[in-house]
Amino acid sequence: MYPVKYHRAGSAKEAQALMKKAKDGKYLAGGQTLLATMKQRLAAPSDLVDIGKLKELKGIKIAGKTVTIGAATTHGEIAANAKLAKLCPAVTHLASHIGDPAVRAMGTIGGSIANNDPAADWPAAMLGLGATIVTSKRKLPADKFFTGLFETALADGELVTAVTFEAPARAAYRKFPNPASRYAMAGVFVSAGKGGARVAVTGAGSDGVFRHAGMEAALGGKWSPDAIDGEKVDERKMLSDLHGDAKYRANLVKVMARRAVADAR
Questions:
Q1: Which CATH number fits domain 170-263: 3.40.50.1370, 3.30.390.50, 3.40.50.300, 2.60.40.10?
Q2: Residue-wise over 184-195: b if at least 16 C-beta within 10 A, else e?
Q3: Whole-angstrom Cα distance, residue 205 to residue 208?
């Protein structure tokens, strides 16, 4: 690991001030990705600004059907929240299947979406729920937040502070995990709410998380696994690696989508 200056921020405001002074700083929450890449010398930030313990960035608030989750809330905390499990079990189910207990105890929802790993689970949930990403500067719909492989609309120094969404009438998430990493080789989050059906796919796309318009239209007419049988997943837009080629992943997307739709009935 390269030399780095470590800062423990006392507030979100202080964290942003520290980031402005840093030559090439990075926010640190759970560190499940950042610390690993630093150890491999694939990342060399000049400063780390630790926001993982900030109470103002933690917690789950539910008002009616509106859910707000602080960016520093861990996967484990989300998975264990009884009120959220009752209102939107798809979200707690997703959180409970991220990595292993150690990862769920440290990793955060804000860190996951800010990193936008192409095989991460939370980006699919955010797109599938039509969530809003709240930052230190603005509010962004999830459809505009995720812009490509490991890329988001975040500006330099901009901090994710929370995510918020309306619990849909129905929702579910299914993934086919890599047996070693538990990352999704194909994960599909489906929902049906006021805005209609939404289908978001992670782990399979060559450009990261994406929505499948064909499946959404089909489910808008009839909510049934059979409704998406005629929809195609473009193999040309799928990842292909040692874990599975594009054709295999395209098939996985259809299988996971069918299972998620069945779960959400």
A1: 3.30.390.50
A2: bbbbbbbbbbee
A3: 5
pLDDT tens, residue by residue, 194-234: 889 999 999 999 999 999 999 999 999 999 999 999 999 99
Predicted TM-score (pTM) of the model is 0.95
Average pLDDT over residues 6-17: 96
**pLDDT of the residue at 181:** 86
How far is residue 183's CA from residue 163's CA, in Å, rounded to a whole number? 21
Residue 23 phi/psi, 5-degree rounding, is: -70, -45
Read off the DSSP letter of residue 243.
Answer: T
> What is the average pLDDT across 176-204?
95
Q: At what angle do helices 89-96 and 122-129 cross, to 10 degrees?
A: 170
- How many Å apart are CA 12 and CA 18, to the nearest integer? 10
